[in-house]
Write a structure and sequence with these properties.
The structure is a homodimer. Chain A is an all-alpha fold. The first copy, chain A, has two domains: 53 residues, Arc Repressor Mutant, subunit A; 126 residues, Tetracycline Repressor, domain 2, CATH 1.10.357. Helices cover 74% and strands 0% of the residues of chain A. In chain A, helix 1 packs across helix 2, helix 2 crosses helix 3 and helix 5 runs parallel beside helix 8. The interface between A and B is medium-sized, with 34 and 34 residues. Chain B binds a DNA duplex through helix 3. Chains A, B: GO terms for molecular function: DNA-binding transcription factor activity; transcription cis-regulatory region binding. Chains A, B: Keywords: DNA-binding, Transcription, Transcription regulation. Chains A, B: This is TetR/AcrR family transcriptional regulator. Chains A, B: InterPro entries: Homeodomain-like_sf, HTH-type_TetR-like_transc_reg, HTH_TetR, MT1864/Rv1816-like_C, Tet_transcr_reg_TetR-rel_C_sf.
Amino acid sequence: MSIQSRKERERAEREKLIITAARELAEAEGWEAVTTRRLAERVEYSQPVLYSHFKGKGAIMAAVAVESCADLAVELRAARTAAPDARHAIAGVSAAYVAFADRHPALYDVIFSLDVPLPFATPEAPPALQAAFGELAEAVRPYSGDDDLGALTETFWAALHGLVTLMRGGRLPRELHDLRLSLFLARFTG
Amino acid sequence: MSIQSRKERERAEREKLIITAARELAEAEGWEAVTTRRLAERVEYSQPVLYSHFKGKGAIMAAVAVESCADLAVELRAARTAAPDARHAIAGVSAAYVAFADRHPALYDVIFSLDVPLPFATPEAPPALQAAFGELAEAVRPYSGDDDLGALTETFWAALHGLVTLMRGGRLPRELHDLRLSLFLARFTG
DNA sequence: TTTTCGTTCCTAGCGCTGCTAGATCTCGGA
DNA sequence: TCCGAGATCTAGCAGCGCTAGGAACGAAAA
């Protein structure tokens, strides 16, 4: 029993090691630099070991996405609860969301942009995703009026996402970002 | 002189052929299916010929993006000019934008999502991009009030982009799309 | 203690990618 | 008719995600 559990523990540790290595490599050099060979080298195992833990590269990315999303949820919550009123809350959450994308572009991408095998928008979605969405929803709630909170939160989220991704892709000038965000918030909150 | 011009004409025709083939292949099977080998086979030339016309695969994608963006601009213009008033105009342009993304996901991606070597948000941006942006701007103008039209149009565009990409990536449920769009428009137009 | 057997892990390799060097072939001009 | 320049192809490089098959290890049985 003890041997069995030791092996399982070591295996879990190694899995964690792989996820962390992937995350660090992605943050440092972007996902295009995260190859199975480099990842294997980094964790000091051979390539096939990765496949005994994950179905493929996509599954590794999905694991990083879930882990990162939990971090994002924490930051959103902190921004929301630190605000003195609803107006500061939604502005603070927006700013925290954008700041996360700015500080961790690779993590943002793997959660929200890249094609990873993860269930979204369903009850089977990872709790971390639901938690992050829930934080946005709580910030939006005071402004929902008679509208459906879920759909309105999705709309709010989509706008933030659009602002972030278009700017990061070089499609929008960085200089106007703060202005765009405040214009959006002004219209959204009425 | 005549031989020279004939060669140039044939060269231009072949370049057009490559772009069209790339576009068709991308629309039919997605950009991951557009490899230089398949493209070369399709235009019935060898792989290196592609590189005598374009710097690389990215440049071919950029060419498709510009061409497609011109189409998008036409559709946006049609939607806008067909509308009887400002409210129908911005709703119609929004619907046309979303419909384009829905009917031509590969083209939408290469214009707005994928990493292609094209200048955006600068005076050197291709006219087609500026034309499409201009159509959005004209639809937004009646609702700009004292706000900067450029920044507000960017914000409007970003929201549409977010709605489109999150839904297409499976992050937002399709069923609520119309509701989300109308919620956004209601808030945006005040 | 020795042998067996199951698991774990690595080496090697497949088919694919974008891209390019160098040989070959075509064709206009002398 | 022959030459030379340009166009085009064949073949190959380094890298990708992924996997088959064998070697080495360690726990249980003799």
